[in-house]
From TrEMBL:
Belongs to the ABC transporter superfamily. Macrolide exporter (TC 3.A.1.122) family. GO terms for molecular function: ATP binding; ATP hydrolysis activity; transmembrane transporter activity. GO terms for cellular component: plasma membrane; transmembrane transporter complex. Pfam families: ABC_tran. Keywords: ATP-binding, Nucleotide-binding, Transport. The keyword Chaperone does not apply. InterPro entries: AAA+_ATPase, ABC_transporter-like_ATP-bd, ABC_transporter-like_CS, ABC_transpr_LolD-like, MacB-like_ATP-bd, P-loop_NTPase. Residues 6-242 form the ABC transporter domain. SUPFAM superfamilies: P-loop containing nucleoside triphosphate hydrolases. It comes from Alkalimonas amylolytica. This is Putative ABC transport system ATP-binding protein.
Length: 245
C-alpha cells in the first residue's frame, strides 16, 4: 500500500482586515502520496503561493485539518512548526536563497545545524557530500554562491533541500530566474529525483514544466478545479482531491 505523506481536509485561509476579508483558499482537500510529483498551476491570485505556504508550515490555515505522515500539524505553535518544517520539508525557491558569506558546503549543511539533535560531524559531512554528488557539484564545495552561475546555484539549493531527507520537497518556480537551457537541466534533475523516490510538489507558471509532473493540480479562486494525471502515472501513485462547492 502506498504511504500517504500529506493529507489536507477542508483547508481554508482567510486574510482579514478592518475593511474586508479575502478568502485565499476555500475548502481544499488534498492527498499526496510517497513518490508523487504534483504540479500546482493557475492564474495569479488563485491561491498557489498560499497553498504552498501552508504545505510548508510557513503559515497556518484558518480552518481544516493538515497531517504530515499521520501527524496533525495545523495547530502547531511557531516554534513547533519550525522544528517539523526543518525535519520533514525541503524547500527550493525561485531566488535560490543561498547565503553568500557561507561556502557551498556550509549552505547545504545549514538545515542540519538547526535540528533539535545535533548530528556527529562525520555524519553531517557524509550527508552534505552525498547531496553534492547527487547534483554533480562536489567540485564546488569550497566555493561561495556568488562564484557560481544561476544554474549551479539552483543545484546547490536542491542539495540543501535534500540534505535532511525530507518527506516532501516543495518547489516554488524553480526555473523562474534561469534561462531555458538551465531551466530544462534543473527540471530534468527534479524528475530524476522523483524517479528515485523523492516526493515533490511544485508551483510553476510554465505549462511545459507543469506537464512533467505525474499529477497536475489546477487552482482558481482558492478552489481545486481538477487534477490531471499524465499517461505514465503508475496506478499506485495517487493524488485525490475534492473541491468543496
Amino acid at each position: 500500500m502506498t504511504t500517504e505523506t500529506i493529507c489536507m481536509r477542508g483547508i481554508t485561509k482567510v486574510f482579514a482586515t478592518d475593511e474586508m476579508e479575502t478568502h485565499a483558499l476555500r475548502g481544499i482537500d488534498l492527498d499526496i502520496f510517497a513518490g508523487d510529483f504534483v504540479s500546482i498551476c493557475g492564474p495569479s491570485g488563485c491561491g498557489k503561493s498560499t497553498l504552498l505556504s501552508l504545505l510548508g508550515l510557513l503559515d497556518m490555515p484558518s480552518a481544516g485539518s493538515y497531517q504530515i505522515e499521520g501527524h496533525e500539524v495545523s495547530g502547531l505553535s511557531l516554534s513547533e512548526a519550525a522544528y517539523i518544517r526543518n525535519e520533514k520539508i525541503g524547500f527550493i525557491f525561485q531566488s535560490f536563497n543561498l547565503i553568500d558569506e557561507l561556502t557551498v558546503f556550509d549552505n547545504i549543511a545549514l538545515p542540519l545545524r538547526y535540528r533539535r539533535h545535533a548530528l556527529p560531524k562525520a555524519e553531517l559531512q557524509e550527508r552534505v557530500m552525498a547531496c553534492l554528488k547527487t547534483v554533480d557539484m562536489t567540485h564546488r564545495a569550497s566555493h561561495r554562491p556568488n562564484q557560481l552561475s544561476g544554474g549551479q546555484q539552483q543545484r546547490i539549493a536542491i542539495a540543501r533541500a535534500l540534505v535532511g531527507s525530507p518527506a516532501l520537497l516543495l518547489v516554488d518556480e524553480p526555473t523562474g530566474n534561469l534561462d531555458s537551457k538551465n531551466g530544462d537541466a534543473v527540471m530534468d534533475m527534479l524528475c530524476e529525483l522523483n524517479n528515485n523516490g523523492t516526493t515533490l510538489c511544485m508551483v510553476t507558471h510554465d505549462p511545459r514544466y507543469a506537464d512533467m509532473a505525474k499529477q497536475k493540480l489546477h487552482l482558481l479562486d482558492g478552489r481545486i478545479l481538477d487534477a490531471e494525471s499524465t499517461p505514465d502515472t503508475q496506478s499506485e501513485i495517487r493524488l485525490q482531491q475534492v473541491a468543496v462547492q
